[in-house]
Amino acid sequence: MPRQITLADGRSVEVECLSCALTSGLIAPTGGVIYESSNFHVHQDVAYPIRGLVILASKRHFYCMDELTDEEQFEYISLIHKIRSEQRNRLGIEKVYYFYNEDTTHHFHLWMVPRYEWMYQFGNSVESLRPVLLHARNNMNDEENMESVIEGIRILREGIRDFESSSR
Ligand SMILES: [Zn+2]
């Protein structure tokens, strides 16, 4: 069902699929695109202001892991590997939680959520994920943290820039 969204420039448009609108460039993510290829689009949703959090989305409109083409499968794992090593090398992120569900209202996308010290108050593993994201959304959207998050986006973008050339 179509959704009404407001663009950064104030215009309001109706889109069929929010993910397609984002990966096609109709909607610009805050902080900018981290990386994109013909198959994938990497960005951060700053509604959850956690430095180094990354969302890796497919550009094609599909939902399930077994729908990845051979080419996409190869690029997918290489890209995750690249993002993960840049998170470690440039942002000092030691552990990451990965989350992906096929019954999403967005299409195929992987959340890569860095694990920080403050998150341990919400426990471990999958049950901690929602409280962590909600805590970030509700309590960490101050200017200082948002600047740090935007800087994280820029640092990752610089790190991943050479991905395609080094992997092809
Ligand atoms: Zn779509």
UniProtKB/TrEMBL annotation:
<dbReference type="GO" id="GO:0016787">
    <property type="term" value="F:hydrolase activity"/>
</dbReference>
<protein>
    <submittedName>
        <fullName>Diadenosine tetraphosphate hydrolase</fullName>
    </submittedName>
</protein>
<dbReference type="InterPro" id="IPR036265">
    <property type="entry name" value="HIT-like_sf"/>
</dbReference>
<keyword id="KW-0378">Hydrolase</keyword>
